[in-house]
Amino acid sequence: MNSSVPYLLAILGEGVVPPSTMVCHADDLGLVRGDGVFDTTRIVTAQDGTSRIDHLDEHLSRFARSIAGVDGPTPDLDSWNRLIEEAARTWRIPGEAALKLVYTNGRQVVPGPPRGFLIISPLSETAIEERDGIDVLRLSRGVTSDAFTDAPWLLGGVKTLSYAVNVAALRYAQSQGADDVIFTSTDGYLLEGPTSGLVIEAADGLWTTPTGTTGILGSITVSTVFEAAGEDGVKTSTRLMKRDEVLRAQGAWLLSSVRGVAPILSVDGHPAPQDEDMTHRLRAWAGFEN
């Protein structure tokens, strides 16, 4: 791979290919219907070109669950692992990058098998800058906090390619001078960010929002942090919460696999409390600091 190329492309069953290679047909269900899923994690490459991938097994397991959620066939994770290993060996650009795995349910008009591929691209400067802190807006997702109960067709907890609402929410927040979003339910509860999980520090430990009936995607970064926090004697729990609880908390963060730990500086223009010590602990637990 030429180092001037800004991203790497690899296709399941083919291996690493030139970035200009056609990935899917015009009638691909992932393209025209959003009928597919993806997962993303961080890959860190040293100066000698060797790379490590954060929590790959957990991301592959979630990827497989998402594929099952859109009625796709059980993925051959050995083949995915080989593709990822080849891509990681080929990617030689030092620094942080995003590794995105993509699956689509095939073609709409002309019969065809499912399609799988991956992309590696350098982490954006914006993502790195936002680790210093973000201003967020609350935006309604338009559903109640239990809307996903007994409704598997809503694809709760599935990381689908249908991300237009998430992207639109981020665009709206940025147009209002904010950096990110916390989605809320119509009954007033905080849910998650468009690409992140919510964690707050309360008097009795760390809280995050529950998955399941809320439809929230299970955050691998939050799970990793909570497991490590428990080992360090910090209590953790899941519960529904509202904005004022965040503003009364000792600190609040949005966590994601690529950006890492981003302290929330304000919510709807109201300053949020800061705990720099806990920010460093969260980053260490998440693998973003030593």
Explain how this protein is built.
With 290 residues, the chain is α+β, with helices and mostly antiparallel strands. The protein has two domains: 8-123, Aminotransferase class 4, branched-chain amino acid transferase, N-terminal domain (D-amino Acid Aminotransferase, Chain A, domain 1); 128-286, D-amino Acid Aminotransferase, Chain A, domain 2 (Alpha-Beta Barrel), CATH 3.20.10. The chain is built from eight helices and 14 strands. It has helices at residues 29-32, 56-69, 77-90, 125-129, 164-175, 220-231, 243-248, 276-286, and strands at 8-11, 15-17, 36-45, 51-53, 95-104, 115-122, 134-140, 180-184, 197-202, 205-208, 236-238, 251-256, 260-267, 270-271. The strands form two sheets. Strands 7, 8, 9, 10, 11, 12, 13 and 14 form an eight-stranded mixed β-sheet that branches. Helix 5 links the parallel strand 7 (134-140) and strand 8 (180-184). Helix 6 (220-231) packs across helix 8. The protein is globular, with a radius of gyration of 19 Å.
Radius of gyration: 19 Å
Count the helices. How many? 8
The biggest beta sheet reads: 8 strands, mixed
The overall number of domains is 2
Give me the CATH superfamily of the largest domain. Answer: D-amino Acid Aminotransferase, subunit A, domain 2
Question: In CATH, what is the class of the largest domain?
Answer: Alpha Beta
Offer a few descriptive terms.
290 residues, alpha+beta, D-amino Acid Aminotransferase, Chain A, domain 1, D-amino Acid Aminotransferase, Chain A, domain 2, 2 domains, 8 helices
